[in-house]
Amino acid sequence: MKKLIYISIALLVVSCSSGGDSSEEKKASNPEKAVLVFPENNSECLEGQIINSQKSTVNFKWSKANSADSYDISIRNLNDQTVKLHTTTNTSLDVEIDRGTPYSWYVVSKSKKGSTTAKSDTWKFYNAGEGVTEHVPFPAEIVAPLYNETITVSNGKVTLDWDGSDVDGDIDSYEVFFGEVNPPGSFQTNLQESVLNDVSVSSGKTYYWKVKTKDGQGNVSYSDVFTFEVN
């Protein structure tokens, strides 16, 4: 009788151990996000191989991510919003891009052992051009409300929040375009901070907005049009 009890306990232990190992193995197979290295964030990229007056080859670099077998690199031209997608098993890649142009980029880590992926932070940089002494500000990036987000407000007010940056560090002001139609019209000008509080909204309506960034030299950039809905 005692022998049967010992066997039952042993089987229970083996069963529990097997389930735990499987869960840990699955977790370990999920790739971590890569840490971007170069081109550096909010900087001017002066390195690379010049092809001609319009093009150069830049070596994009990032750190190795644990459990990652390959990486998808996404490079967006912030002037015309076109995107270049590349896949590699290395942690660096030479890519031909336009000179005198602002870009954003990020890397997605992937593993052959599962469908889970991990996305890195998104960095922005300006690829140097011929004789460029000043730079257009990067297009503003949304912070809140999130794109296509449905929000609930209790006082009929919402805060528009964005992030502005410029290689020269001389952003002078922002202009917010806001309304119920797309494209939205000018709403408030000469803003010194990258936030606009107490914007009146109504329940059940969809709103559109974008941001114009102006630097001290008079250069301007426009963000994408963002949209959100109010409950």
Determine and state the CATH class of the largest domain. Mainly Beta
Assess the beta-strand content as a share of residues: over 45%
Spans of at least 5 consecutive residues with low confidence: 1-18
Tertiary shape: flat
Q: Just name the CATH architecture of the largest domain.
A: Sandwich
CATH fold call of the largest domain: Immunoglobulin-like
Average of per-residue pLDDT values:
89
Largest sheet: 6 strands, mixed
Report the strand count: 19
Question: So how many helices?
Answer: 1
How big is the Rg? 25 Å
State the share of residues found in helices, binned by percent: 10-25%
Quickly count the domains. Answer: 2
Strand pairing plus helix content: what structural class? mainly beta
Distance between the termini: 67 Å
Please write the string of helix (H) and strand (E) elements.
HEEEEEEEEEEEEEEEEEEE
How do the helices and strands line up, and which of them pair or pack?
Layout: H1 2-28, E1 36-38, E2 43-45, E3 49-50, E4 55-62, E5 70-77, E6 83-88, E7 92-98, E8 101-110, E9 118-119, E10 123-127, E11 138-144, E12 149-151, E13 157-165, E14 171-179, E15 186-191, E16 195-200, E17 206-215, E18 220-222, E19 226-230
Can you put this structure into words, describing what you see?
The chain is mainly beta. It has two domains: 92 residues, Immunoglobulins (Immunoglobulin-like, Sandwich), CATH 2.60.40.10; 93 residues, Sandwich (Immunoglobulin-like). Helix content is 12%, strand content 48%. It has one helix and 19 strands. The strands form four sheets. Strands 2, 5, 6, 8, 9 and 10 form a six-stranded mixed β-sheet that branches. Strand 17 and strand 18 form a beta hairpin. It is flat, with a radius of gyration of 25 Å. It starts with a helix and ends with a strand. The N terminus is likely disordered. This is Fibronectin type-III domain-containing protein. It comes from Snuella sedimenti.
